[in-house]
Amino acid sequence: MKHFLDITKETCPMTFVKVKLQLAKMDSGEQLEVLLNEGEPLENVPRSCEEQGYKVLSIEPLDNSQHLILIQK
């Protein structure tokens, strides 16, 4: 199952907090698509996910200074 989370209105450190809370609700093996802004969220969220043991499957730039990352729990 794939879940979606838009954190474009959040600022660090709440960007990763929101992602971590969503991942905690999910079952192992499920995937979470996260829409985020470039800059600090793009630097911190993928790194923090990897440090917490989650797998970042892809980071896709969009045409409006936002990115879509895919994380597997």
Overview of this structure, please?
The chain is an alpha+beta fold and 73 residues long. The protein has a single domain, classed as Translation Initiation Factor IF3. It is 33% helix and 36% strand. It has helices at 14-25, 40-51; strands at residues 2-6, 31-37, 55-61, 66-72. It has a four-stranded mixed β-sheet with strand order 1-2-4-3, with helices on one face. A hairpin with a 4-residue loop joins strand 3 and strand 4. Helix 1 packs across helix 2. The longest helix has 12 residues, at 14-25. The model has no long low-confidence stretch (mean pLDDT 96).
What keywords describe this structure?
73 residues; alpha+beta; 4 strands; 36% strand
Helix content: 25-40%
**How much β-strand is present in the residues?**
35-45%
Q: Distance N terminus to C terminus?
A: 11 Å
What's the number of domains? 1
pLDDT averaged over residues: 96
- Number of DSSP-assigned strands: 4
Question: Could you give a short account of the major beta sheet?
Answer: 4 strands, mixed
- The H/E string reads EHEHEE
Compute the CA-based radius of gyration: 11 Å
CATH topology: Translation Initiation Factor IF3
Give the CATH superfamily: TusA-like domain
CATH class: Alpha Beta
CATH architecture term: 2-Layer Sandwich
Uncertain parts: none
Summed up, the helix count is 2
The general outline is globular
